[in-house]
Amino acid sequence: MPPVRQFRNIAVLLCAIAAGYSLSLAPANAERTSIESLRAQSRQLFEAGKYAEALAAQRRVLDAVKALVGEEHQAYADALVNLGLVLRQLGRYAEAEAAYKAALAIYQKLFSPDDAKPLLTLQRLASVYSRQGRNKEAAELLERVLAAHEKALGPSAPEVGRTLSLLADVYSDTDRLIEAENAYRRSLSIKEATSSPPYLDVAVVLNNVGTLYLDLHRDQDAENMFKRALAIEDQARGAGHPGTLEPIVNLANIARRQGRHDEAMQGYQRALALVQKTGGPNHPTAATILRNMSVNSRQANRLTEAEAFARQSVAIREASFGTNHLFTADALHKLADVYELQRRFDEADTTYRRALAVYEGAYGANDIHVGGIIAWLANLHARAGRAAEALALARRAFAIDAGDEIAKASRPRRLESLSDDDDANRYHRYVGVLATAARAGVASPADLGREAIEMAQWQTQTSAASAVQQMAARFAAGSGQLAELIRASQDLAAQRRSLDSALAAALGRPEKEQDTRANARLREEVAATDARITAAAERLQREFPDVASLTVAKPLPVDEIQKLLGADEALVFWLMGEKSAAETYLFVVTREGFDWKTLPLGTADLTAKVTAFRRGLDVDELQKSVQAGKPVLFDLALAHELYTGLLGPIDDMIKGKKQLLVVPTGALTALPMHLLVTAKPDGAAPTADNLKPYRDAAWLLKRSGVTVLPSVASLKALRAFARKDQASKPMVGFGDPVFAVETAEVAQGGAKKVVSRKLNTRSFSEFWQGAGVDRERLAQALPRLADTADELKAVAQKLGAPASDIHLRADASETTVKRGSLADYRVVYFATHGLVAGDVKGLAEPSLALTIPQKATEADDGLLTASEIAQLKLNADWVVLSACNTISGDKPGAEALSGLARAFFYAGARALLVSHWAVDSAAATRLTTSTFDILKSDPKLGRAEALRRAMLAYVNDTSDPISAYPAYWAPFSIVGEGAAR
User: Which fold has domain 1-110?
Assistant: First the structure.
């Protein structure tokens, strides 16, 4: 079990102690009194963490009960359950399983299958399965228990809440994250409604939900959960109780990750004192806390302190688990990190290699854990000036990492569940090593550039993958060979995760307790499963290339990219690293050649600049600032600075190209590239009274049309697999949906209350409750968009679409969308709110909000999700998403684009028209209708060029000074195929 998991189980363990030790005996006599005394002794030893002594005492209890009442009595089953509890805590899972099964056999003879005793024993048996990595069996048992509780006690019974919490743990461990959060939230709701002070069972669920959010990097949500849990624990148990450990440590982890290092250190020191007080200075949990303290000090550049903490962690783990144990290797890794920063390169190399040997021995030479250590070694040699060695190591690590995405998705999480670096950032480090090798001249810069372009694409693929996970589930629900293959791949992925959990549990035991032969068999099973996963991925790529391009697209080599590009096109993309990264890598490919550059732009600095760049682009905020006498205007100088930094180094390759295809990542997803300024602004800066400098600025848009791609590989999907025939009807539109119950006057079309579109794109998970959407909360959060009806009607009139193809109010529903023959329309238009997938890893799917039904069904709950979009049948030249911030959300780095875009592409769209900020309605109507008019008059122009000309016509309109301001004329971008092909 990974060390972080130990924290999570402390709170669960304390609850188990309170509820677990039970014994059903008749009224007391001398023998029974003696048994009760032994039982109390065992419980006290267990609570004190003296598990071996508790086991001996519990065996005496079992023998005494057997002598008193025999082996068929309920009391004997109770004693077996208590024995199983101690065995489980000692990691003797096979013996615990046997004890629980023996108890279960007795209970089933004495009680009905749905009685509390057998059901509770099934729950405990499930926990043993989970500890062994047998999560499928654990989930099946818990789902069976849940169904029995719901049937007998109702959906809101306390027993249902407890089972849901355990089931959520299993779902979380197997990366069934949507189901995990649903189960946790439902459990929490039940516990809050049915519990009484001191609410400790509520704290357990809060801790578990917080742990899930940590895995998803939803730090604010996690912090809120842990603070609530800690407040309950402190009040109920007191500030020095072990039950407070988990929220304390995780709050410190969050503070560390957000750079609040002093606050993090205070939390770690509090937790360390608590562990040392209750478990002694050499308790294994102390080693984990010291490891995190070392990371925190390293990140704060307090390297002497970091080294001391890391050394202590290594010493404790060596004493507790052995010198060749995975936990020891992890501590060695952190110590090596410190040596590297201290420029003690030889010591760092030796220490990394000690850790590497342990990982190779445990997992084999080609495991992802091994690749991670090799990647750090490569980085070390690059910093030490050993470019050739660094290059060889980076290539070896990359070869391990760059498997098919199906195979990668099935691989385990890293050893520590709160990893110090996102896995995707490895690719940034690999490219950094290649850049070092190019500067050192150890290989051809052109050859290294080809490698770098493929390596860099993996990072984009990795970050976008979470947005399409649900689509695979939808494909699997169908019939035919594709569905069978997807289902088989999913089964293999689940099997791989279970095997890894079993191997991790086995390797997590102290060295002297490990079974070498059993571990070898597990490794063989892992290798065989990996081979089957790879074969399934290759078959998918071979037999269903369009699906593969959507879900598991491999990077495109430079030669293949060049063949897909037109003579007047250039493809540009960037690779950004973690927050502390000091460099960004720039890549450009044209039909004639390619190049790559190292940009001295750090990720944190670039994110801050993009945030500053977007100031003044929100129409509502602009108007407020002008009315307040302190206008906040778009910064032309910053727009030029960003052009110089991001595109200036390749200006000679792109300035003659009429069309730029850009693949933004990280903060750059929030940067509308067409608003970059290619030349230094002349004259005075714009003012609220003089907007002419905006009209005169050297916008990139004046030189080139700009099209956005979700990934480089999506270029192939769009140009190799897109339908070539054209739909017969002009347009179908959906807008002004019904979100909340409205007054009769409004519902009947009376006085309209036009609400501004100023509503930041929201995270789907904010409105998730139980197994579905909390429609009441969602309705309250989404104001009506009455003006979108006028927008749709105006565009329809321009395109010659009949009124019957414009679906408004109640008719703007999921049901209408799914039942319509959408493949008949060239333009499919959604004028509504967008909801993004959440933070970095995306718990739920990006969605479009449609009319919320009074009674939700699986087919219509008011949200058209990415996986549902992927099942639509389209033949659309355009899908217009005239919604709030549908390209990037309300902050740099949001992942709204990839899920919606990929889903629409798979469904049959060639291009999307999306917005970067809340759109002014009149401007939106003018821009969209003008774009369609231009394209209708000259179809050979292409969509990107038509939008470019519509924007230029707007900005050059001198009849109204405000038309020069970019917030009005520049909100839209083309995603997908912008060319006429």
Answer: 1.25.40
